[in-house]
Write a structure and sequence with these properties.
It contains four helices and 16 strands. The protein has helices at residues 4-18, 43-46, 91-94, 99-116, and strands spanning 21-28, 31-39, 54-58, 72-73, 83-86, 117-120, 123-126, 132-135, 141-150, 156-160, 163-168, 212-219, 222-227, 230-237, 255-256, 263-273. The protein is globular. Mean pLDDT is 83; it is low at 1-61.
Length: 274
């Protein structure tokens, strides 16, 4: 029989290699207590915890998509409720449509998103094609949190109030280095050349196959972006791609862009701000 500690170490290695979310269960005096759920736990951290304290690791899709206090889940983990479809379209134009024309536009878009967007095990998946997933509700000031995972040569982003965009790059694609892909994701790419925020302050992307986490805060026209815990845009003015002299719209939808490659999303949460 193998020593118990060796078995625990191997168990911990298997879980760490395969899991993005880990729940620790601590056994003390016959009782069990949850001591925390962590994203992407590294082996160096795991080795610091005495083996006899750790009795179980569990990973559950049910733990996904549950918003932290003060936030609302935009994605329910089950289906596309609360979403419709748009491309890169000036919000001022489609918001001005009459009710009948808008209803027809929306109904047509819903058919499209169901062809290219799907849900599996609590993960929102796009096949690299189709319209951009768009919230039915429009937002003013807000904080947005979400996780994404993409593939090589993908080009995506997040539209704020219907305006492009917080950029998501393949930071290894040399053909797009001239566009700034080598600088990494998180910048306000549609800002004017040289404008604050257009390029991220640092490369913070994780390797392909790993989940990345955004925290995006929009107040007025100012945007702050954290990618994987790193500050990449610091309270920079976001230009209105559709009307650079007119400023950002007061309200608009949040959009998840699909452009050139499959991308997955989870834990999409928003908190409205005053």
């Amino acid at each position: 029989m193998k020593p118990r500690n060796a078995m625990v170490r191997r168990s911990r290695q298997r879980v760490c290699q395969k899991s993005d979310s880990i729940t620790f269960t601590l056994a003390i005096g016959g009782g069990r207590f949850i001591i925390g759920a962590f994203q992407t736990i590294h082996m160096k951290i795991i080795r610091l915890i005495p083996a006899f304290l750790i009795t179980a690791f569990t990973v559950s899709a049910g733990e996904l998509n549950h918003p932290p206090k003060g936030f609302t889940a935009l994605f329910n983990g089950k289906d596309l409720t609360g979403w419709w479809g748009l491309k890169t379209e000036n919000p001022a134009k489609w918001m001005a449509m009459d009710k009948k024309a808008f209803a027809e536009k929306k109904a047509k878009s819903v058919k499209d998103i169901h062809q290219h967007w799907s849900v599996k095990d609590g993960i929102l998946i796009n096949d690299g094609h189709g319209m951009y997933l768009t919230t039915e509700k429009n937002y003013g000031n807000f904080e947005l949190r979400l996780d994404y995972k993409t593939v090589a040569k993908a080009d995506s982003g997040i539209y704020l109030r219907g305006v492009p965009q917080v950029q998501i790059w393949d930071y290894t694609e040399e053909k797009k280095f001239k566009l700034g892909a080598d600088k990494g994701s998180g910048g306000l790419w549609n800002n004017s050349k040289g404008a604050p925020g257009k390029d991220p302050l640092m490369l913070a992307d994780k390797p392909f196959g790993e989940w990345n986490s955004f925290r995006i805060r929009l107040v007025g026209e100012k945007v702050t972006v954290h990618l994987n815990g790193q500050l990449v845009v610091d309270n920079a003015k976001m230009e209105n791609y559709f009307n650079r002299k007119g400023g950002m719209p007061k309200r608009g939808p949040i959009q998840l862009q699909t452009h050139g490659g499959a991308i997955s999303w989870r834990n999409v949460f928003v908190k409205e701000l005053n």
